[in-house]
Specification:
Strand order of the largest sheet of chain A: 2-10-1-11
Shape of chain B: globular
Helix content of chain B: 25-40%
Strand order of the largest sheet of chain B: 6-7-8-3-9-10
Distance between the termini of chain A: 30 Å
Distance between the termini of chain B: 19 Å
Strand content of chain A: 15-25%
Shape of chain A: elongated
Largest interface: A-B, 23 and 28 residues
Order of helices and strands of chain B: EEEHEEHEHHHEHEEE
Largest sheet of chain A: 4 strands, antiparallel
Bound molecules: adenosine-5'-triphosphate, magnesium ion
Oligomer: heterodimer
Strand content of chain B: 25-35%
Radius of gyration of chain B: 17 Å
Number of strands of chain A: 11
């Protein structure tokens, strides 16, 4: 048995084609892993970031100013009306204030120090990963992203590396001064915000510069900005009318019916974040098809390779009978060598694809803004599928050839 | 006396017609002699060699090796007999391209389970020395000339020190110089006490033979004797 194993394995290392096989299968594995990784990541993305995310389920809704006046509706009437609509779970004006403020303390080489402020309350905050949410007391608190890039143009962030983020090791409890002016630039204001918490932003789109503050406080800032106007109260409430409400729909699948309903009732709406789920499922389908084709190619490839190997070795097996090898010994040697080939090629292929994947992960990490919205979930199912297929191909080829092994005799 | 055939007949069926190849032949091959078998193409030389080598069974008759009938042996016993008693040399050398010269020579030795790898390698090197290839031990077949490859094949045939060497046109694809070399090696083996049976078309190598045989009209006949 020892000698048989030796004969079956020792010389396989000298077969140059084996190296080619390993590289080919390794590459196929890598591509299938990549496709499957994209697929599972896309599905994960759709579930975590689209189906379950607050952003994708919310609409900005407002009513035309004239309609409001003509119909004699107050802001509260509109809120009640929206709340009564089917499939709407939450109506708030919380995000109705938005503003962008500048702090010289946040300026770095790469970041210009502008922060976008959204109003929020504890029920509409994203997930807090460090610190706390808003306390009951009225203070100038803000909650910032864990990956915080205060910058006015999100497009520029593509060229920024993860190391350029505002350090958040000791950021909680830090007070940051923001400066702003009234509309006509007659008055200078400044305000100190204390960072009390960090929210998770790895899964959300373009919020690396968004901080949340309480509605009253943001309202105060907006009022200050309008302080030059004669009728500032009125202007602010007009602003509220125009910005309107944020409504949360119970499920992403009801979004369309809610939109229809809103139009029918004379509302104007805007999606806060949109994504085409169809796009993902189409790509996903294509990926699956390609994976299947790859697996089929590998299957045929292995059959062809083993057939070639058999053709090469057939004469040797014939010779070995002349040299006094028993037929069963030869069959065992042949099958063992096939199994050995399978093991080294899948092992080698696995190592190759592992290295390639680590390399591509490195690339992913190098460009965080291209990929950090994605949780990369490596799909290993094609490795298993490819291994099973290889095993199957080896099995078929070995069985057929051992049956045929001594059919043609020496001429 | 070492190898004897008694009343051997062999026929094939071709297009449902019976084709006689060997018809009731008898002969006794002895150790220490080189036999030279000639005959027209298709006369049955290879068939006879294969029967002698226990590769195919005759339709009738017996083969005796060292006075023991081998006709009744099982496939596995046949294999052991081939491994221990018979060495084959073919026109094409059938060397394993993935194995170095000495590894090719070791191939028949693996059947002997008690031998160590080191021992087998030493034996293989010695045999390669016998055929004049001591400097080519670590070469792959493709790095050797045709004559050298055939000498590796001879060394391989000698691996288990068999008493019978069967060679089917061993120099058939070699130039005259290499042919001489091969035949003088075979002649030496006969001198050392082996029974060497060589099939050859080439009349120029007759001079090496102790006995000249021919297959004609399905019969094996002795036609000459170079013995002193
Ligand atoms: N397996 C087989 N099936 C049918 N006929 C066969 C088989 N093997 C050999 N023959 C026939 O038997 C006859 C003898 O063949 P053999 O190979 O022994 O001839 P040979 O003397 O070695 O010829 P050559 O000098 O060409 O090698 C030929 O007619 C051949 O066609
Ligand atoms: Mg022949």
């Amino acid at each position: 048995m020892k000698n048989k194993l030796f004969l079956a394995t020792r010389y396989q290392f000298r077969r140059k084609r084996n190296i080619f096989n390993i590289i080919f299968i390794g590459f196929a594995m890598f591509i299938s892993i990549l496709l499957s990784t994209y697929n599972t990541s896309a599905i994960n993305y759709m579930h975590n970031d689209i189906y379950d995310s607050f952003y994708f389920k919310t609409l900005n809704v407002w009513k035309n100013e004239n309609d409001l006046i003509n119909e004699g509706l107050t802001l509260e009437d509109v809120r009640d009306d929206l709340s009564s609509l089917k499939n709407i779970t939450n109506v708030s004006s919380i995000a109705s204030y938005r503003d962008m403020l500048y702090s010289s303390e946040l300026v770095t080489d790469k970041l210009d120090g502008y922060v976008e402020f959204y109003s929020a309350n504890n029920s509409t905050l994203p997930k807090i990963v460090a610190g706390t949410n808003f306390p009951n007391s009225n203070g100038y608190y803000m909650i910032c992203p864990e990956k915080f890039f205060p910058h006015s143009n999100p497009d520029d962030l593509k060229y920024v590396s993860i190391n350029d983020k505002v350090s958040n090791d000791d950021i909680i409890g830090k007070k940051i001064k923001f400066d702003y002016k009234s509309n006509q630039e007659t008055t200078n204001y400044n305000i100190d915000f204390e960072i009390i918490g960090l929210y998770e932003n790895s899964d959300h789109i373009f919020d690396e510069d968004i901080c949340y503050v309480k509605e009253d406080i943001l309202r105060e800032i907006v009022m200050n900005k309008y302080s030059d106007d004669i009728d500032k109260e009125n202007n602010v409430s007009m602003l509220e009318y125009q910005i309107g409400f944020v409504v949360e729909v119970d499920d992403i699948s009801n979004l369309d019916s809610v939109k229809e309903n809103l139009s029918d009732r004379g509302y104007v709406y805007e999606s806060r974040a949109t994504v085409s789920t169809e796009y993902f499922s189409n790509i996903s389908k294509k990926m699956n098809n390609i994976s299947t084709i790859i697996i089929a190619i590998v299957f045929i490839f292995i059959l062809v390779i083993l057939q070639k190997k058999y053709k090469e070795e057939q004469q040797q097996f014939q010779l070995m009978t002349f040299l006094g090898y028993r037929k069963n010994d030869i069959r065992i040697i042949y099958i063992m060598s096939n199994i050995f080939n399978l093991i080294i090629s899948t092992l080698g292929a696995f190592i190759i694809s592992f290295v390639l994947i680590q390399m591509s992960k490195g690339i992913f990490n190098y460009y965080p803004f291209l990929f950090n919205k994605w949780k990369i979930i490596i799909g290993y199912s094609p490795v298993i599928a490819l291994f099973i297929i290889s095993l199957f191909a080896t099995f078929i080829s070995s069985i057929l050839n051992t049956i045929n092994l001594f059919k043609d005799s020496y001429e | 006396m070492v190898l004897e055939i008694q009343n051997i007949s062999k026929y094939y069926f071709k297009n449902k017609r019976k084709v006689n190849v060997l018809d009731n032949i008898n002969y006794v091959f002895e150790t220490g002699k080189l036999y030279f078998i000639s005959g027209k193409s298709g006369s049955g030389k290879s068939t006879l060699i294969q029967i002698l080598g226990l590769l195919i069974k005759p339709n009738t008759g017996d083969i005796l090796i060292n006075n023991k009938k081998v006709g009744k042996l099982t496939d596995n016993e046949n294999s052991i007999m081939r491994n221990k008693e018979i060495g084959f040399i073919f026109q094409s050398y059938y060397l394993n391209p993935l194995m170095k010269a000495y590894e090719n020579v070791m191939l028949p030795m693996y059947m002997n389970k008690t031998d160590t790898m080191k021992n087998m390698k030493q034996k293989a090197e010695k045999l390669l020395d016998v055929v004049g290839l001591s400097t080519r031990i670590n070469h792959y077949p493709k790095e050797l000339s045709g004559g050298e490859q055939q000498r590796v094949a001879i060394a391989r045939a000698l691996a288990n020190n068999p008493n019978i060497i069967l060679a089917d046109e061993p120099s058939g694809s070699l130039d005259p110089e290499n042919e001489e070399k091969i035949l003088s090696i075979l002649k030496n083996l006969a001198k050392q006490g082996k029974c060497v049976i060589v099939v050859s078309h080439n009349q120029s190598t007759r001079k090496y033979a102790d006995k000249l045989l021919i297959i004609e009209d399905n019969n094996l006949k002795e036609v000459g004797n170079n013995e002193k």
